């Protein structure tokens, strides 16, 4: 499993990186907020470990960026900042764990392992198999291709969930408009573009179409 570690203190970065690698994790490190955002945009991660007070842009801004990309991976804040405002901001932005510096490496191990267990332990009741090697986790609301998370927008996830709710049935563009966009204006071409984007991120037969009938998910 792959972890992004944002830490500008070199000694902390090296010690945490080496420790987690010895536990079997793959670690990708960043020393400033912009570097972290660039890596989040280009790669898939199972966990983000973010310091807050880092060069360029803060860990909080990195969290905002990740959430805007619809990142579904858990986020752990690892920082010496302890005032209630910083802690509150972190949780409001969607962090899942808060680790105060300095810490014992055994505590880091426990918290990382617990997040991985909580978010990635297999429970077949929550997994829907879709076209080829894709899985949809109804709890985490994410698509995986093997172990890789597919980055999808919230609208794309909503569209997939709607089609999954009608397994075996075709849904017309009007059905999709009504259920997903409700009263908001979108034309047929806009719907087709969202479906095309999902196919580009997954596979051509992830969503099946039939002229005059509409679309259905390939379960």
UniProtKB/TrEMBL annotation:
<dbReference type="GO" id="GO:0032993">
    <property type="term" value="C:protein-DNA complex"/>
</dbReference>
<feature type="DNA-binding region" description="OmpR/PhoB-type">
    <location>
        <begin position="125"/>
        <end position="219"/>
    </location>
</feature>
<dbReference type="Pfam" id="PF00486">
    <property type="entry name" value="Trans_reg_C"/>
</dbReference>
<keyword id="KW-0902">Two-component regulatory system</keyword>
<dbReference type="InterPro" id="IPR001867">
    <property type="entry name" value="OmpR/PhoB-type_DNA-bd"/>
</dbReference>
<dbReference type="InterPro" id="IPR036388">
    <property type="entry name" value="WH-like_DNA-bd_sf"/>
</dbReference>
<dbReference type="GO" id="GO:0005829">
    <property type="term" value="C:cytosol"/>
</dbReference>
<protein>
    <submittedName>
        <fullName>Two-component system response regulator</fullName>
    </submittedName>
</protein>
<keyword id="KW-0238">DNA-binding</keyword>
<keyword id="KW-0597">Phosphoprotein</keyword>
<dbReference type="InterPro" id="IPR001789">
    <property type="entry name" value="Sig_transdc_resp-reg_receiver"/>
</dbReference>
<feature type="domain" description="OmpR/PhoB-type">
    <location>
        <begin position="125"/>
        <end position="219"/>
    </location>
</feature>
<dbReference type="GO" id="GO:0006355">
    <property type="term" value="P:regulation of DNA-templated transcription"/>
</dbReference>
<dbReference type="GO" id="GO:0000156">
    <property type="term" value="F:phosphorelay response regulator activity"/>
</dbReference>
<dbReference type="GO" id="GO:0000976">
    <property type="term" value="F:transcription cis-regulatory region binding"/>
</dbReference>
<keyword id="KW-0805">Transcription regulation</keyword>
<feature type="domain" description="Response regulatory">
    <location>
        <begin position="2"/>
        <end position="116"/>
    </location>
</feature>
<keyword id="KW-0804">Transcription</keyword>
<dbReference type="InterPro" id="IPR039420">
    <property type="entry name" value="WalR-like"/>
</dbReference>
<feature type="modified residue" description="4-aspartylphosphate">
    <location>
        <position position="51"/>
    </location>
</feature>
<dbReference type="InterPro" id="IPR016032">
    <property type="entry name" value="Sig_transdc_resp-reg_C-effctor"/>
</dbReference>
<dbReference type="InterPro" id="IPR011006">
    <property type="entry name" value="CheY-like_superfamily"/>
</dbReference>
<dbReference type="Pfam" id="PF00072">
    <property type="entry name" value="Response_reg"/>
</dbReference>
């Amino acid at each position: 499993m792959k972890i992004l570690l944002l830490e500008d203190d070199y000694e902390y970065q090296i010690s945490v990186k080496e420790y987690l690698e010895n536990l079997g994790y793959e670690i990708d490190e960043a020393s400033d907020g912009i570097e972290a955002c660039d890596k989040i945009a280009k790669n898939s991660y199972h966990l983000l470990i973010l310091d807050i007070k880092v060069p360029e842009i803060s860990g909080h801004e990195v969290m905002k960026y990740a959430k805007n990309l619809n990142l579904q991976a858990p986020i752990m804040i690892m920082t010496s900042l302890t005032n209630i405002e910083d802690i509150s901001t972190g949780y409001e932005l969607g962090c899942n764990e808060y680790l105060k510096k300095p810490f014992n490496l055994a505590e880091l191990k426990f918290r990382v392992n617990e997040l991985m267990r909580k978010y990635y332990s297999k429970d077949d009741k929550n997994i829907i198999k879709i076209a080829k090697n894709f899985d949809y986790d109804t709890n985490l609301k994410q698509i995986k291709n093997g172990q890789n998370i597919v980055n999808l927008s919230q609208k794309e996830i909503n569209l997939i969930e709607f089609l999954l709710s009608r397994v075996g049935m075709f849904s017309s563009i009007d059905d999709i408009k009504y259920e997903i966009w409700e009263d908001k204006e979108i034309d047929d071409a806009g719907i087709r573009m969202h479906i095309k984007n999902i196919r580009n991120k997954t596979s051509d037969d992830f969503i099946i179409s039939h002229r005059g009938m509409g679309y259905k998910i390939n379960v």
